């Protein structure tokens, strides 16, 4: 099966391409490389023996998409391409709405022209806002987002839901990721944030490797067991497998399919710091700082629906997430350089 993968050179997309090739799928990657490096293609090839077809281009460029669709018999699309930095989205809302919302609309328009009716979209647990109840199920309330990035994900979900009502012969899958972390176990592929990392795990990894002095723990006065924020961290390889399960189970079935991709377990910031210390063999320096505006206390997924419908369940442990991140970070201290 040929699958167009937008943003396939990025963190989650690249790991998904590796797992797709292993599952005998053929990813055709498009990426404008605004947040990734061409070298990723070499790493995918080294791991799989296959160099995926790659087009450098933008999902907002309809003529470019038309050309790609005309050159391949594409059966489905996985749409990872987008901007994802919460803080940056507050200062650059137009760029975020243009890239994430407009980009998704242009893509679906090109798919409609090409007669491709199956799309899997990278959504986020951020659409749930601050949940009243955990674990979060797919029918928990959505839309109370706190920043333009989160709103852009929610808007795309709404646009796609309306589009599905008009085109009920499509298969539209919204995957709401919880907190993707970890790296390929080979240590050759992983997350390579530009500038100061926004997210916990890459920040811890850069402290451990000596690129940063210490972690700021954003708040220890939440109503959680140790007072620090609790999240559902999921290994990127499990997440990658979740996409393949979704494509296989519902990618050819008409419908609007919505799934949480998480583990169903919550871990605190201090638990992650401790686990990383064990993985790298030395304690990770940190200091307690004020809460980060917009953060929620706790968030983890109900995984029952994905398990039942997709036959998929995350299996990798926090110890594997931290060990694989450390393997990647210590072998590539400067990322893809
Ligand atoms: P990433 O930045 O590593 O990957 C995104 C890729 O898309 C990059 O390679 C970038 O160059 C490319 N891209 C961006 N805009 C593009 C455009 N207009 N045209 C073509 N290519 C473009 O991010 P990631 O962590 O791999 O995330 C993938 C998707 O998953 C994103 O949509 C993100 O919002 C979503 N998501 C990520 C997380 C997370 O914590 N990483 C959580 C929930 C949802
Ligand atoms: N944290 C710190 N110090 C840091 C970074 C994070 O203490 O330097 C804490 C946060 O306060 C939070 C936890 O670590 O309690 C996780 O923070 P992340 O920034 O790694 O992740 P978030 O849960 O805030 O957000 C992430 C993605 C969003 C996505 C959301 C979905 O960044 O894009 O998960 O749940 F929408």
Fold and architecture overview:
- It is an enzyme of class 5 (isomerase).
- It comes from Vibrio albus.
- One of its GO terms (biological process) is galactose metabolic process.
- The protein has helices at 11-22, 39-48, 62-71, 86-91, 93-114, 148-166, 200-208, 236-250, 269-280, 304-310, 318-331, and strands spanning 2-6, 26-31, 53-56, 76-79, 118-124, 171-177, 179-181, 215-218, 230-231, 233-235, 255-261, 267-268, 286-289.
- With 337 residues, the chain is of the alpha/beta class.
- α6 (148-166) links the parallel β5 (118-124) and β6.
- It has a 7-stranded parallel β-sheet, sandwiched between helices.
- It has 2 domains: 2-182 and 233-262 and 306-315, NAD(P)-binding Rossmann-like Domain (Rossmann fold); 184-230 and 265-301 and 319-331, Alpha-Beta Complex (UDP-galactose 4-epimerase, domain 1), CATH 3.90.25.10.
- The mean pLDDT is 97.
- It starts with a strand and ends in a 6-residue tail after the last helix.
- Bound molecules: nicotinamide-adenine-dinucleotide and uridine-5'-diphosphate-4-deoxy-4-fluoro-alpha-D-galactose.
- Residues 6-7, 9-13, 31-36, 58-60, 80-84, 99, 103, 122, 124, 177, 180 line the site of nicotinamide-adenine-dinucleotide.
């Amino acid at each position: 099966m040929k699958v167009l993968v937008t943003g396939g050179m990025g963190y989650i997309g690249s790991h998904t391409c590796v797992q797709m090739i292993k599952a005998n799928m053929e990813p055709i990657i498009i990426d404008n490389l605004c947040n990734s490096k061409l070298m990723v293609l070499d790493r995918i090839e080294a791991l799989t023996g296959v160099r995926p077809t790659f087009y450098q281009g933008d999902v907002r460029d309809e003529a470019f998409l038309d050309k790609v669709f005309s050159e391949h018999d594409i059966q489905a699309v996985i749409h990872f391409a987008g901007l994802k930095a919460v803080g940056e989205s507050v200062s650059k809302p137009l760029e975020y709405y243009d890239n994430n919302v407009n980009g998704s609309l242009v893509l679906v328009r090109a798919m409609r022209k090409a007669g491709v009716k199956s799309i899997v979209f990278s959504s986020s647990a951020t659409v749930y806002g601050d949940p009243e109840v955990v674990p979060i199920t797919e029918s928990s309330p959505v839309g109370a987002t706190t920043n333009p990035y989160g709103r852009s994900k929610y808007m795309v979900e709404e646009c796609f839901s309306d589009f599905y009502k008009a085109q009920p012969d499509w298969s539209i899958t919204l995957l709401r990721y919880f907190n993707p972390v970890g790296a390929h176990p080979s240590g050759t592929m992983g997350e390579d944030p530009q500038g100061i990392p926004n997210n916990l795990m890459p920040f811890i990894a850069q402290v451990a490797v000596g690129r940063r002095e210490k972690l700021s723990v954003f708040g220890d006065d939440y109503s959680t067991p140790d007072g620090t924020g609790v999240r559902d961290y999921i290994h990127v390889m499990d997440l990658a497998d979740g996409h393949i399960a979704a494509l296989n189970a519902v990618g050819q079935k008409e419908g609007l399919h919505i799934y949480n991709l998480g583990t169903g377990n919550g871990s605190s910031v201090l638990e992650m710091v401790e686990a990383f210390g064990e993985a790298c063999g030395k304690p990770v320096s940190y200091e307690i700082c004020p809460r980060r505006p917009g953060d929620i206390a706790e968030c983890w997924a109900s995984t029952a629906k994905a398990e039942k419908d997709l036959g998929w369940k995350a299996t990798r442990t926090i110890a594997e997430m931290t060990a694989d991140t450390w393997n990647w970070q210590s072998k590539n201290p400067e990322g893809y350089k």
